[in-house]
Amino acid sequence: QFTEEKLGQAEKTELDAHFENLLARADCTKNWTEKILRQTEVLLQPNPSARVEEFLYEKLDRKVPSRVTNGELLAQYMAEAANDFGPGTPYGKTLIKVGEAQRRLGAAERDFIHSASITFLTPLRNFLEGDWRTIAKERRILQNRRLDLDACKARLKKAKAAEAKATVTP
């Protein structure tokens, strides 16, 4: 039935226009959700190898090790440099102040990444891995049932045609 429909040799039962619209919206939602999820992951972790590592930890159900952000690493370097130059020197004092500000910025960045992952990315993943899979499964079932219906309609049409032909010919 599917092949005959694709070749244009069989009639296809059309679905309700409202339902077709819902299916199109569902596809659009899935596509945009995937794009937004991927781009947000890139924004939160620009390093591709770190993203792959985090993905593997996720799939293995292991805790992702905490990474030091670039701001925190810069703060650490500034603190070490301040100790080398001497905390009493003007340069050392400046490095300590700026380093502390960088440490706070780095901690805020880490908190933001963690928060965004939990409150934003998790619901998107849940939609794609849960709701979307259910939608796709139900869509396949509906398609198979529609193909079965169309095949039965085609057989019925052939049977009626054969019956009509048999009654016409003596």
TrEMBL record:
Claim: Cell wall biogenesis/degradation is one of the keywords in the record: no
GO BP term (any one): membrane organization
Cytoplasm found in the keyword field: yes
Cellular component annotations (GO), alphabetically ordered: cytoplasm; membrane
Superkingdom of source: Eukaryota
Similarity comment: Belongs to the endophilin family.
SUPFAM superfamilies, A to Z: BAR/IMD domain-like
InterPro entries in the cross-refs: AH/BAR_dom_sf, BAR_dom, Endophilin_SH3RF
Name of this protein: SHLB2 protein
Gene: Sh3glb2_1
Record's keyword terms, sorted: Coiled coil, Cytoplasm
Subcellular locations according to the entry: Cytoplasm
Pfam families: BAR (PF03114)
BAR domain location: 4-170
